[in-house]
Amino acid sequence: MLVKDVMTKNPVTVTTGVSIPEVKGLMTQKHVTKLPVLDKNGALVGIITDSDLIKASPSDATTLDMFELSYLLSKLTVEKTMVKKVITVIESEPVEEAARLMDDMDVSCLPVLRNGLVVGIITEKDLFRSFVNMFGTRHAGVRATFVMSDRPGDLANFTKILAENKSNIVSLVTSDVEEENCRKVTMRVTDIELPVLEKIIHDSNLKLEDIRNV
Predict the structure, then answer these.
(1) Distance (Å, rounded) from C-alpha 76 to C-alpha 59?
(2) CA–CA separation, 169 vs 8, rounded Å?
(3) Per-residue model confidence as pLDDT tens digits over 121-173
(4) Cβ-Cβ contacts under 8 Å for 68 (sequence gap 6 or more)
(5) Which runs of E-coded beta strand occur in 50-167?
(6) Residue 16: closest CA among 62, 64, 79
């Protein structure tokens, strides 16, 4: 799965001269909280989020009245509030690389570029949605988590047994474990009864951690 398969295409954007009240109104109207900022030539120059708007707003302890606050905010533009150092990703990047980048850089979204121009944006919500899809959580079946050796061919041999039982693997994800030369496997399988899958795992000498109907 690539970034282009998960991202929000043609995202709402703003230019540097837009005022903060206008940005707030746009976010409310479009139901978004993150806006890429473009210059007059359409090039990405920053990003502004609802968190940035909160930081730019006067403190509740201010002595300014409503009219003074409105005037000051109307003079405050995106250019003065936006984050200028923007972390981006290209649309052909694997989605897990985008997730890693967001985690490493501690950001909640990434503008997506094609030939240097913004064509989308990928957010934490988009990643959660892809996580749901990758784990096949909307498919009923049996979910099992077990630890197996990381030797070439072991996983293929196990899935061959499932195929011989005419079961279907909806999703299969592996992850690191502390045991050397081992991987944790989480899979969701249909067209098989839980006791049958449990027996296959046991007969394959795998370390079963969890199994349940889902």
Answers:
(1) 15
(2) 29
(3) 999 999 999 888 888 888 899 999 999 999 999 999 999 999 999 999 999 99
(4) none
(5) 89-90, 109-114, 117-123, 142-149
(6) 79
How far is 197 from 211, CA to CA, in rounded Å?
9
Give the separation between CA 209 and CA 54, rounded to whole angstroms. 45
Tell me the three state secondary structure of residue 89: strand
pTM of the complete model: 0.75
Please give the structure tokens belonging to residue 20.
């903060």
211 exposure class (CB count in 10 Å sphere: 0-12, 13-18, 19+)? middle
List the structure tokens of 163: 């195929």
8 pairs with which residues across the strands? Answer: 121
Q: 28: exposed, middle or buried (C-beta count within 10 Å: 0-12, 13-18, 19+)?
A: exposed
pLDDT string in tens for the chain (214-residue length): 899 999 999 999 999 999 888 999 999 999 999 999 999 889 999 999 998 888 766 544 444 455 555 555 566 889 988 999 999 999 999 999 999 999 999 999 999 999 999 999 999 999 999 888 888 888 899 999 999 999 999 999 999 999 999 999 999 999 999 999 999 999 999 999 999 999 999 999 999 999 999 9
132 phi and psi, to 5 degrees? -60, -45
